[in-house]
Amino acid sequence: MKAVRLYAAGDLRVEEIAAAPAPADGEVRLRVERAGICGSDLHNFKTGMWISRSPSVPGHEFVAVVEAAGAGACLAPGTRVVADSRVVCGRCAACLAGESFHCENLGFVGEVNDGGFEPYTTLPAAQLVALPDQGLAADVAVLAEPMAVALHAVARLNPATGVPILVAGAGPIGTLVATALVHRGYGPVMLADRNAARLATAAAASGALPVADLAVLPHVPGYAVDATGSPAAVSALLEVLPGGGRIALVGLFHGAPQVPLNAVVEKGLDVVGCAAFRDELPAALALLGEVRERVAALTGRPIALDDVPATYAELMAGASDRIKAVIDPFR
Ligand SMILES: [Zn+2]
Ligand SMILES: [Zn+2]
């Protein structure tokens, strides 16, 4: 079968590989319906930062159907599932304390094992969550993992109601953060991005107010979320937040960025980091069921496995108007 495999930083290949193995005890073999390309996939491609085995089939965001179940696997064939992307070690101090969320050896599906950028993949059943609504469209269900990340960022931001919130970055995470905030009645919510086409789609889907320029805001925000990983954007957010404001950082930075930390000190800002998610995956699936019409526009037409390298390049160049690129491995 055809698969996309990452060999090293900058070395992504589409090639023929052996069929996914029959499931061992506790494992299931999955037929992938859709797989999403994540910002962290691009980051790993660019830097090789999380390459722990080579080659590896990326893809921690996918929706799939159980094809075959090994002995003791708790998922019946025909069940539609998404992956819990986090692979925890179970041995470190955090895991032993029941805080596997902070696992010191945290790995991800698609890095420590093969993920969803192939038609069939085999994973432990314990790594998977059945869709509560088995009829949820694949183009919506594929957003489960990024929506869990978005809900974790909302939980970390912990905003009071009625206070304006500024979200920077209309990529998948920023757009889903804005969607969750609006749907839960927070805000007014403002969503900022420099790509006008992407911003228009993201604002329409999320219900947030579009902001083309961080220097011209309809409301003074009490809270901010950075989903860009851009030092310039974070600097602007630190600038516009008033004293006592809070900023949640969910975008990944390249290198060690220069940002004006004196704004944090002088204005007594709270800065919170948001890593992956905690136990938000079931809530993310439930929320996607409620906002399915709104978010259906975020994925657009799925691409084929052969298109993945070119789409990586397009996404990294910021040239894409897509909010979330998704793959149909059977195209
Ligand atoms: Zn992701
Ligand atoms: Zn651990």
Keywords:
Quinone Oxidoreductase, Chain A, domain 1, 28% helix, single chain, 2 domains, 6-stranded antiparallel beta sheet, 331 residues, alpha/beta, 16 strands, binds zinc ion, globular, Rossmann fold, 22% strand, 6-stranded parallel beta sheet
Structural write-up:
- The protein has 2 domains: 2-142 and 299-327, Medium-chain alcohol dehydrogenases, catalytic domain (Quinone Oxidoreductase, Chain A, domain 1), CATH 3.90.180.10; 146-273, Rossmann fold (3-Layer(aba) Sandwich).
- It is 28% helix and 22% strand.
- The protein is built from 11 helices and 16 strands.
- The protein has helices at 39-47, 93-96, 138-141, 144-157, 172-183, 196-206, 231-240, 261-267, 281-290, 292-295, 308-316, and strands at 2-8, 11-16, 27-36, 61-69, 80-83, 86-87, 107-108, 120-124, 128-130, 165-168, 189-192, 209-211, 223-226, 246-249, 270-273, 326-327.
- Strands 3, 4, 5, 8, 9 and 16 form a 6-stranded antiparallel β-sheet that branches. Strands 12-11-10-13-14-15 form a 6-stranded parallel β-sheet, sandwiched between helices. A two-stranded antiparallel sheet has the order 1-2.
- Strand 14 (246-249), helix 8 (261-267) and strand 15 form a beta-alpha-beta unit.
- Helix 4 (144-157) packs across helix 5 and helix 5 runs parallel beside helix 6 (196-206).
- It is globular, with a radius of gyration of 20 Å.
- It starts with a strand and ends with a strand.
- The model has no long low-confidence stretch (mean pLDDT 95).
- One zinc ion binds next to helix 4.
